[in-house]
Amino acid sequence: MAKAAKPRGAASGAAGPRPPSHQAFGGPIMVGGIHRMPLSKAVRAGDWVFVSGITAIDQFGAVLNAGIEGQTQRVMEVIRALMEEAGCTLAHVVKTTVWLEDPRDFWSFNKVYGQFFPGTPPARSVVRSELMLDCKVEVEALAYDPK
What predicted TM-score, i.e. pTM, was given to this entire model? Predict the structure, then answer.
């Protein structure tokens, strides 16, 4: 009996190498210096750069011991560095999604965030959420850079 052909694009069950049109940036995300998270900090796919939710943690997964302004500064510096690594700038960012642990931090967050987008800022959503780590803010970004 002949095997049925696998539909085009069907998963093989094992994750193979990424297609050449996808490139990951930023190195691994570690939690507690031990656990490698199964995600990329940023991925470029053609003209688009997708940045995962970034929090104020160091390379060992320790949360920056700072208030909302210090944590926002760190998060935005990491996003800027990821954009540069992907061949973009913050001016290429078209959308961000922000999670704040405490809605009372909104204006202090805005003050720092705005310094990173002095021209036309990207579209943005901000929601209050209990975050997975003991962080005050998490920011995800989407950039468009036609090559």
Answer: 0.81
Specify whether the CB–CB gap between 82 and 39 falls below 8 A: no
pLDDT at 135: 93
Q: Which fold has domain 22-144?
A: 60s Ribosomal Protein L30; Chain: A; (3.30.1330)
pLDDT digits (tens, 9 = 90+) for 81-109: 999 999 999 999 999 999 999 999 999 99
Helix (H, G, I), strand (E, B) or coil at 146: coil
Query: Under a CB-based contact definition with an 8 Å cutoff, are residues 141 and 93 in contact?
Result: yes
In whole angstroms, what is the distance from residue 147 CA to residue 132 CA? Answer: 36
Residue 5 has pLDDT above 50, yes or no: no
Two tokens at 59?
A: 């390379």
Structure tokens given for 97: 């999604």
DSSP 60: T
What is the spatial order of strands in the sheet that 22-25 belongs to? 22-25, 42-45, 48-54, 137-144, 93-100, 123-128
Reference 24, options 47, 51, 50, 42; nearest CA is 42
What ranges do the domains of the chain cover? 22-144
